Amino acid sequence: MKDIDGFMTRVGEFFQAKLGSAVVDAYKLGSLAHGGFSNIYSDIDVGLLLHCTDVPSRMAELIAEAKTLDTEYGRKLSVFWGNPEFTWGRLPNLDRLDLLDHGVPLLNGHKPQFRRPTKQEIRDELLRSIERSWKPRLPELGKLTWLAPQDRKPYIRAVLYAARMIYSWDNLAMDSNDRAVAYLHQVRPLGLELKPIDMALACRQEKCPAEDLFALHTDLNRQCESAVGYIAARP
């Protein structure tokens, strides 16, 4: 883990060198910040809080260059960036929640301070994520007859998404997959099978292979429909 922390710090220092005083701080985000990191299935998420009038030029090129800082970890790097007012950049409301509640400063020890997304903003972001990220993958994943190596991560993510989405919908917060799955066992949404979700979490924890999860032949569309039905009935 120290190697990953060192890589993330180098990423932050790289952007500070390129963008200068525009960088308020760089942050450890995602499972490395709130727990549940998987060496196999997790991304390495770095957040950049910027304070400048205009959008920095060449951000796409700089992010591509940052990925070359390490041949292994660079392939897993995801960079989220934006200003405190969120008038530009790539820092959606769910990632802003993660930054506020769990972000670990990598450079200057700056505690992030900006307006917390509202309940409506959080739930709107979740609904967009369902339509843009979750549902579109389900037909393809549901037709698989075997699980190729490149399909393991998206398949596990698709099965786990119900837990993550329901946790954030009810609690207006981001947290680890472990906590989201535990919460799912508390609320037990009608029609949602918990066994494949438990097994997907076990896969992330390297307790079982993804092929064991795939062998359950889970109806991904039904899981999605059950999760969406649950949140539709929540106040």
Layout of strands and helices, then pairs:
Blueprint: H1 2-19, E1 23-29, H2 31-34, E2 44-50, H3 59-66, E3 77-82, E4 89-90, H4 93-102, E5 104-105, H5 119-134, H6 138-142, H7 149-171, H8 177-187, H9 195-204, H10 210-214, H11 220-232
Parallel strand pairs: 2-3
Antiparallel strand pairs: 1-2, 1-5, 3-4
Helix pairs in contact: 5-7, 7-8, 7-9, 7-11
Order of helices and strands: HEHEHEEHEHHHHHHH
What's the number of extended β-strand segments? 5
Helix content: 40-55%
The structure class reads alpha+beta
The total tally of domains equals 2
Overall geometric form: globular
Within the largest sheet, what's the order of strands? 4-3-2-1-5
Distance between the termini: 40 Å
The fraction of residues in strands falls at: 5-15%
State Rg: 18 Å
- Main sheet overview: 5 strands, mixed
Number of helices: 11
Low-confidence runs: none
Chain-averaged pLDDT: 96
Q: Could you walk me through the main structural features you see in this protein, from its secondary elements to its overall organization?
A:
This protein is α+β, with helices and mostly antiparallel strands and 235 residues long. The chain folds into 2 domains: 2-105, Beta Polymerase, domain 2, CATH 3.30.460.10; 119-232. The protein is 52% helix and 10% strand. It has 11 helices and 5 strands; from the N terminus they run H-E-H-E-H-E-E-H-E-H-H-H-H-H-H-H. It has helices spanning 2-19, 31-34, 59-66, 93-102, 119-134, 138-142, 149-171, 177-187, 195-204, 210-214, 220-232; strands at 23-29, 44-50, 77-82, 89-90, 104-105. Strands 4-3-2-1-5 form a 5-stranded mixed sheet, with helices on both faces. A hairpin with a 6-residue loop joins strand 3 and strand 4 (89-90). Helix 5 runs antiparallel to helix 7, helix 7 crosses helix 8 and helix 7 (149-171) runs parallel beside helix 11. The termini are far apart.
